[in-house]
Write a structure and sequence with these properties.
The protein is an alpha/beta fold. It has six helices and ten strands, in the order E-E-E-H-E-E-H-E-H-H-H-E-H-E-E-E. It has one domain: Rossmann fold (3-Layer(aba) Sandwich), CATH 3.40.50.300.
Length: about 260
């Protein structure tokens, strides 16, 4: 019989309850989810459905109430919520790339310095090699000509592409993205998707992205729906045609 590979990401009965003045609020209700290596998974839901809370459970940014999150991106089983704070921070820096809707670039650093920062935080900084790596990543997102600019001098779409390059700084096997196209125009958002699809198809990354936009469902290899803290639908994986690398895409905006 063929060997069945364990999922790269596995959530087992994950529950998150917040205590409020009005009483307990259950944000996630027994979530079970398995994500295979090389998937581009979309988590789709309205505001308040539990999308960002679910990402926080996967990344270990917030504590779960019960259940377990197991990650296998680095070749071994890691129970995320059993790690100490220090071990969790190191594991996150080496294994995950996190992309936010609000970019969160440091305004006093140039673009290339922003991309190099995660290398320094994980103790991997080497002056020449780190700069070469950061330059390659800026080339991937077509921003190498802006490497020495401050974030204030580039557009929102360009800042999001820098944030993607920064998330790839330590070559993590897994990327998680929280509404990364939510504040972008449709043309720029389409280019961001092209970058994500290239990372999955050509570089073997596993990506989880949350969005409120149901129309984006076909862009993922698979998507699930979350409603009131419950996963309600899982669309079957789809075969996607390979696209050229983002730097070779014709007719795309570089805004």
């Amino acid at each position: 019989m063929p060997t069945v590979l364990a999922p790269t990401i596995e959530l087992k009965n994950v529950t998150k309850i917040y205590s409020t003045e009005a009483g307990d609020f259950t944000a996630l209700k027994g979530i079970d989810l398995r994500v295979a290596k090389g998937e581009f998974l979309g988590i789709v839901g309205k505001s308040g459905a539990g999308k960002s809370t679910l990402l926080n459970m996967i990344t270990g940014v917030d504590h779960l109430t019960s259940g377990e999150v197991i990650m296998r991106g680095d070749g071994k089983d890691t129970s995320v919520h059993k790690l100490s704070e220090d071990a969790l921070a190191l594991w996150r820096g080496q294994t995950l790339g996190i992309i936010f809707q609000s970019f969160q670039l440091l305004p006093m650093l140039t673009l290339i310095e922003n991309v190099m920062m995660p290398m320094d935080l994980c103790g991997r900084y080497q002056a020449r090699l780190s700069r070469e790596r950061a330059t390659e990543l800026l080339m991937l997102v077509e921003l190498e000509d802006h490497a020495n600019k401050l974030p204030a001098y580039i557009s929102g779409g360009q800042q999001q592409r820098v944030a993607i390059a920064r998330a790839l700084a330590n070559d993590p096997p897994i990327l998680v993205a929280d509404e990364p196209t939510g504040s972008l125009d449709s043309v720029t958002a389409d280019h961001i998707f092209d970058v994500f699809e290239h990372l999955v198809q050509e570089r073997g990354k596993t990506i989880i992205m949350v969005t409120h936009d149901n129309s984006l469902g076909p862009r993922f290899t698979r998507h699930v729906q979350i409603t009131d803290g419950i996963l309600t639908k899982s669309a079957a994986p789809v075969e996607r045609l390979k696209k050229p690398a983002p730097g070779k895409v014709k007719g795309k905006s570089t805004k």
